[in-house]
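Hi F.,

I've been meaning to write this up properly since the lab meeting, where we talked about keeping a consistent format for the predictions we share between groups. The idea is simple: the sequence comes first, exactly as it goes in, then the structure tokens exactly as they come out, then a line or two of notes. No screenshots and no reformatting. I'm using this chain as the first example so we have something concrete to point to.
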Amino acid sequence: MRGLLVAAGALLLFAAPAFAQSSTTTIEKRTITKETPAVGSTVSTTIIAPNPPPAPRVETPPPPPGPRMVWTPGHWTWERDNYVWVGGKYMEPPREHAAWVAGRWMQRPNGWIWEEGRWD
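Output, unedited:
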């Protein structure tokens, strides 16, 4: 019985390095946590693009689907080495008198960073 435990331990020792091997991957998106005081925390994605986005598209919002609905304009997002347009949409504010602050692209030393839109 004792020899079996040693053999099993030795097997585990030899098998462990195979699981420790990994490859290096470069990513363009990383997940961070932002705190929202009234609600808790939310998870957002930081997007870094190498060049500035195109000019925003002109959108004509359709009629609102409800009395409390607020139009949030579309924006450019960075996907697979290219800018892609995300159309605007109606959203319901999380509380009375909340105002939508649109997202924006900001230039930084390492590229263009997308700051998500939010309710203020």
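Notes:
Strands lie at 29-36, 40-49, 70-72, 75-79, 82-86, 89-91, 100-101, 104-108, 111-115, 118-119.
The first strand starts at residue 29 and ends at 36.

If this format works for you, I'll send the rest the same way.

G.
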